[in-house]
Amino acid sequence: MSAGRKPNAAACAAHERLFPGHVSTLAVTDPELIEYFDNFAFDEVLQHTQELPEPTRLMMQLAAMIAVGALAEYRVMLGAALTVGVTPVAAKEIVYQAVPYAGMARVFDFLHATNEVLTDRGIELPLKGQSTTGPDTRMKQGLAVQKQIVGDQAVDAMYANAPADEQHIQRFLSGNCFGDHYTRTGLDAPTRELLTFAMLAALGGADAQVKGHVAANLNAGNTRATLLAVLTGLLPFIGYPRTLNALAAVDAVAAASADGAPTAKKADA
What we know:
By secondary structure, the protein is an all-alpha fold. The chain contains 14 helices and no strands.
């Protein structure tokens, strides 16, 4: 039954565009799985992600792969992303953006992998710096960006409600998460918010943060349709449970927003 099994024409065309000339070893050892996975991920899913340009979709998938620790798949997909127009700067910024959400312990290997892929393509490192803050400005600028994305009232409430012995965590969020990362050039704030949403959805166990960043995405100008397209593109790589949990957050927050309720839920990070 397995002999001659292969993905359909649309999936093969997408695969060739992303991975020109590459023949998957799994297509030889596991033809049935690759047939229906590729038909799903590289045809059926793509029919419902047209809201996103292909480079953006791949950036979201790379962010999710960092979150789930899929290093081997990340290497392959990073090559595809660079092939279809994701810039080296954008690729690096995805990894940097992952640090406050997935943690350096997880991101460390992905940073080295990114450097290796870029170097193999003849790209000289380090790339041009993208930081816009320093030790004396990161807190002020980070707090401003945090309030712009999360909402003034929500951020003020986070500080007001935090006990005295937890105030430093709130300052870390403003100065480190937002001041060190969101203020960087190379990616705009709406794209960074989409990346954060993709990472949090993929991480699992971060339902409150997913909900908060659905609201933050809406505040940043991303639409419900865009968030749904991101989740659709992530589904083959993160599975149904985490996708459905994130969908529930999108539905709940978008519905509240449509009813006139504030969209800036507690994002925590």
